[in-house]
Amino acid sequence: MASENGESKLFEQCSICIVCSKDLLSDYAEQLATTLEQNGGEPSIVQPGAEVPDVAKFSHLISTTIDFEAYDTASDALIPVVKPQWVNISLSKRKLANPRQYSPDPRLFMNDVVVTCGDIPEGDKDAIIGGVVAKGGLYAPRVSQMVTHLVDLTADSDKARIVKAKRLNVKIVLPHWFDDCLKLGRRIDERPYTLPDPEILRVGPDTPIQWHENKDLVGASTTDPSRLPPPSSPAHVSGHRSIFEGKTIMLSPDLEIGPHLQESIQAVLAQGGAKMTANVDDADMLICRYREGFAYRTASRLNIDVGNLAWLYRLMTFNTYTSPLRRLLHYPVSRTPIPGFEGFKISLSNYVGEARIYLENLIAASGAECTKTLKQENTHLITAHGTSEKCSAAKEWGLEVVNHLWLEDGYAKWKLQPASNPRYSHFPLRTNLGEVAGQTPLDRAVLEQVFFPSTGTAAPSPPRAMQSKPQNTNTASAQPPAEKKRKIDEDVSDAAHGTPQANGKRRPVQTPARACVMSEGKENETPSSTSSRKSKEAATARLHEYAPDLALYEKERKRVGGVIYGGRRKSDEDRVQENKKENKKRLSVEAEVESDVEQAAETKRQKKSRPPIAMHLLITGYQRWVGKGNEKKEDADKRGLRDLGIMVVQDARRCTHLAAPSMIRTTKFVNALAYAPVIVSTDFITSCLEKGELLDPADFPLKDKEAEKKYNFDLSCVTANAKKNKNQMLRGYRIYCVEDIRGGFDAFKSIVETNGGECMPFRGRLTIANHSRREESDEEESEVEDENPARKELFLLSSAGVKHSRIWPRFRQLALDIKKTPRIVHVDWLLDMAMSQETRSANKYELTEDMIGNNNE
């Protein structure tokens, strides 16, 4: 589209979706749409509560908030989401403004700040400009209408006089404001820092600090609201579309709400146009209390919104969508505490109103204890500023004194954060940090890793992931055999996936060796019934009688090959002779105590003296098992290997040894290399089975000089490289892959992610369905970017086929649009790096148009 005089219009290449909300009303959206149309744009307006159509059709989305359902999809598709100001600024500049500076993302908390600097030292000036720009703001060298903040030490500087003379709406602030904001990672009120009479320089330390209401905590201070919100909100009265219209909602049984309240909730949802379901596969929203159970894991893996009653009530109250991950207490809680929080006694100081209620509930949700009074038995004091009697007492008693960010970050990352981090011990002089409580979102990547790891992958075990469920002998005996077996399978699956227990009781912890055996499936036996407490105590007492024998047993077990292989001979002089009856009695006592401590599933097998697991072996390309009709042979061989102390595993994460006939490019082989296993030839397996003993794997190293020469690396160095990389060789790499690549997209995705990178399919646009990208902090990104220039590049795995080459221009254009260097490479680039565990330049593997048709795949 062009104007009458032939000049192109600014937005003529833009298709823009305007997302209405309570802060972006329909009237204003219509004005924006008119402006965009006059300048060549193609605007579309989405009313509050309505779904955003396919985001791939748009070049930009305009919104004042990230609280709409299509935001994550737009972010994954690299489609910029901007505030309405972006339109006016672009028109004033006569070019499209940088969308990052106008993002509504709260993590870019300086995104509506345009700063200019007055008479301040150059070092401070550079630090402030860098921090503001990194957090989404802009720097202006001169005072103008765009400037929002002037950083100065006095109100009498040249730039300050210009601001006063022109009566510009510019706040003149001390550099301390930026310093405090950047240290906290939050934007605090600038009023105490505003010249000419800043409060931080004028008021004494004992003067009470004024507190302002925190709007972020409205309806988000508890996980268990006491009553249903009013049935009709202003949004409904005005006739706007309900956000529940067309939605299917499932209320989980673990909510434990009465029938009257449940009927009331269903009536409100039905009034808003929602349908109820008891099948999670049909649901658009799941409302539950705990992070556990089949429905929770299924909904989470399907990217269905999972929230608690507090989140549902907020949607009812405001009729505006907000992600349940946006606020910590809008998401279901865990029955198990954050690792390291057990035993913490935490007291609060200087937090008032909703902020105090919010932190009390967050402490309870983290697994710690919140105390109203501060005593010497407390471990932590969380305070909103550093001046109070509690703060003085806590410092005298040597307690940890931190702000609420320590608690929020620990809950969001599900990991105890070091209290020594300066961010958690920083208290601005005249600011009550309760004003910025509740701004920390949950990290979906952490939730997935800990509470609902993807099926088919063995994610790192979460806290208490190896715990076994308490057995109820009466219930178990009453169940049919099929039901008992199904329940045991579910219990083992829950343990492998880190699902916390449904009851609040502590559970005994299995040893790692036991958990490894149970996770294999084939060795899983029905647990024996639990003995009475009295018999357990008697068994423990009897166990002392056999202490010398057990000591000798443990000593022999540590010998190479274990007790069975490599043990003492009958002819040894110092060999202890044990009669069969005493030996059988001792083993019976051991099994009884072991069942009490571990609640193990293979007591009978242990009685048969099966050797302990000496290695976890991943096998690929073993010819004796290849082909139809060899399944029985494979099973028999695996049982034989297990009798020798070798556990055959399928997951590369668990392998300590890797066996292959040669350097083959199977997914198993390539992925396993990243975990630094001992690499052996499959001759090791054959020899162990033929000789019936566990041989030394060092005698069977994998040798393949021809492949080493072909792929240009030394196999003997791969393990050392992998140990150094720690699965982070591709950290910072964003790699796209054509969907129909030979070998399959899933195989290359697993290789990239195993080595710490990010892999997504490319369908002619930078988008991906149901993809959750792990967001790192800006500090981590900048640190990695300095070390890793690959962050400035986008990679596409492709072949030189005609079909794949058609999407190359589109990929290059989209990469350049987001200021990345496009690199279209052959899959050998990824495979060579993964197999050598060394990063390589993409230049040698880059595909160009003159290679089209020369497809060697």
Automatic annotation (TrEMBL):
CDD domains: BRCT_BRC1_like_rpt2, BRCT_BRC1_like_rpt3, BRCT_BRC1_like_rpt5. Residues 468-478 have a biased composition (Polar residues). SMART domains: BRCT. Residues 6-104, 104-195, 239-329, 341-424, 617-702 form the BRCT domain. Residues 219-239, 454-540, 570-609 are annotated as: Disordered. One of its GO terms (biological process) is DNA double-strand break attachment to nuclear envelope. PROSITE patterns: BRCT. It holds the Pfam family RTT107_BRCT_5. GO terms for cellular component: Cul8-RING ubiquitin ligase complex; nucleus. InterPro entries: BRCT_dom, BRCT_dom_sf, CellCycle_DNARepair_Reg. Gene3D superfamilies: BRCT domain (3.40.50.10190). Residues 570-589 have a biased composition (Basic and acidic residues). This is BRCT domain-containing protein. It comes from Penicillium bovifimosum.
